[in-house]
Amino acid sequence: MSSKSASNCVSALRRAMRAIRGQYSRSVRSPRSAKGREWLLDNYYLLAREGAAVLKALRACPPLPVDVDGKPRLLGFFGDYIRNAGDVDTHSLASALAEISITSAETEQLRLFWSAALILSASRAACAPLPDTRELG
Q1: Distance of CA 81 to the CA centre of its chain
Q2: Cα–Cα distance between 55 and 13 in angstroms, integer?
Q3: What is the pLDDT of residues 6-48, one digit of tens each?
Q4: What's the rounded Cα separation, in Å, for the pair 73 and 110?
Q5: What single DSSP character describes residue 117?
Q6: Residue 16 near residue 119 (C-beta atoms within 8 A)
Q7: What is the distance between the alpha carbons of residues 82 and 97, in angstroms, rounded to a whole number?
Q8: Whole-number Cα distances in Å, 58 to 29, 52, 100, 123
Q9: Cross-strand partners of 72
């Protein structure tokens, strides 16, 4: 991965982790902001641990193909997959991966970029506005 694409990826993940940490802190302090974010309260420690591991692993990541935006191609692929797949299962993921031609270096980094894409997705979910439950009742 070029130093620019690595830097872009690291910056995006650091922003995501700050957003997750901020929402977690608000949820801990305020029961009102915690309502609907129980998943974050229950799983924050996993996100924090995985985020730190991904950031550390990115420092040792070899050069990888990038997309037109200069981001690692696998990060974009997994991000799109997570947004569009609905239910994620091994078969559908394997089928989607078979449709693109990945390099051997990318094959070695599949888990890393899957984890990175999940963290970015968790950040979007943690920071998304919650629905007004008064309208549902």
Answers
A1: 11
A2: 7
A3: 677 899 999 999 999 999 998 888 877 666 788 899 999 999 9
A4: 11
A5: H
A6: yes
A7: 13
A8: 32, 10, 22, 18
A9: 66
- Reported as a single tens digit per residue, the pLDDT across 81-101 is 998 877 788 888 888 888 988
* Identity of residue 5: S
The string of pLDDT tens digits covering residues 41-71 is 999 999 999 999 999 999 888 888 888 888 8
For 87, phi and psi rounded to 5 degrees?
Answer: -75, 130
The Cα 7–Cα 75 span in angstroms is: 13
Closest CA to 113 of 81, 86, 90: 81
**Whose structure tokens read 């191609």?**
73
DSSP states of 57-110 as a string? Answer: HHTTPPP--B-TTSSBHHHHHHHHHHHH-SS--HHHHHHHHHTS---HHHHHTH
